[in-house]
Design goal:
7-stranded mixed β-sheet; mainly beta; 4-stranded antiparallel β-sheet; single chain; about 120 residues
């Protein structure tokens, strides 16, 4: 059974920082592309950033230079360090695991709320 468990969300003031974690189980973690997506109220879910098994990254323009993704294959965990947070970063953040190769499968976490407000 695949599980992705996010943690680290919360309320932070503009300009502040948060670090999200996503612990994976039930998958061969090191071969999966991992990602963070977010969904703000009334909006579509959007890509934040992905990291491949070889640690290549793809960031949304809106977070480049402020967010950093990393992975620890020994701990089956992916992280999202978020700095210089803005109000528009407020959303539910979801962890994603995408299997490689033919017949790609996507797995999702339950989401963690990030609220940026003074």
């Amino acid at each position: 059974q695949v599980q992705l468990v996010e943690s680290g969300g919360g309320l932070v003031q503009p300009g502040g920082s948060l670090r999200l974690s996503c612990a994976a189980s039930g998958i061969y973690f090191k071969i999966y592309t991992m990602g963070w997506y977010r969904q703000a109220p009334g909006k579509e879910r959007e890509l934040v950033v992905t990291i491949t098994s070889s640690s290549s990254t793809n960031y949304a323009d809106s977070v480049k230079g402020r967010f950093t993704i990393s992975r620890d294959n020994a701990k089956n965990t992916v992280y999202l360090q978020m700095n210089s947070l803005k109000g528009e970063d407020t959303a539910v953040y979801y962890c994603n695991a995408r299997s490689p190769g033919f017949g790609t499968r996507d797995y999702w976490g339950q989401g963690t709320q990030v609220t940026v407000s003074s």
